[in-house]
Amino acid sequence: MCYGKCARCLGITLVPLALLCIIANTLLFFPNGQTGFNTPERLAESVWCFSGILGSGVLMIFPVLVFLGMENNDCCGCCGNESCGKRFANFSSVIFAGIGVAGAAYCFIVSAVGLNLGPKCTTNSNINYTYIFTDGDYLANHSMWNECKDPPNIVTWHVTLFSLLLVMSGVQIVLCAFQVVNGLIGFICGDCCSCCGSA
Ligand SMILES: *[C@@H]1O[C@H](CO)[C@@H](O)[C@H](O)[C@H]1NC(C)=O
Prior knowledge:
The protein is elongated and about 70 Å long. The model is unreliable at 74-80 and 193-199 (pLDDT under 50). The chain contains five helices and two strands, in the order ααααββα. It is 59% helix and 2% strand. Strands 1-2 form a two-stranded antiparallel ribbon. The chain has one domain (3-189). By secondary structure, it is mainly α. It binds 2-acetamido-2-deoxy-beta-D-glucopyranose.
């Protein structure tokens, strides 16, 4: 088994996940597809953490580039030493996989907090945009969702997008954590696969 190949597959899988996280976080700024609600007073703080855009999105560029480059790197060698180059590539992939875990974990935590707090909205008795739910109680009780009047459909919008972010960042954590282990194995037994030509 060549560990570089494996990292490449992980890198390719991370790309659509990162793009979807960026899209999901961006949509959170436009409840019901409408503009005009994207001010800090009207949207939940968790939307303004940019966790899907930065943590699970832009930050993923680094592990993705390193993972995608591994198949090439791991045979080039450093100082003319093939095995040393392979080990170095594996070692750097561990570092960048760690960065990926951290970014995805940031998105995962913010999404969980966002789901727990719920969206900000107005009600029949309160025209200010505030959190009206406590401790995620609304998640199990659909009839509470109608208490939110404005932005329209905000609870569905909020729950759907943060659930997607939660799942996708969870997958990113697993993929990057897998490469942490994978890269460490490759680093420790760098000579396990005779890579050049046969990869
Ligand atoms: C669901 O919420 C409604 C409205 O707040 C409340 O009247 C009802 O008791 C709740 N149901 C449950 C099972 O908690």
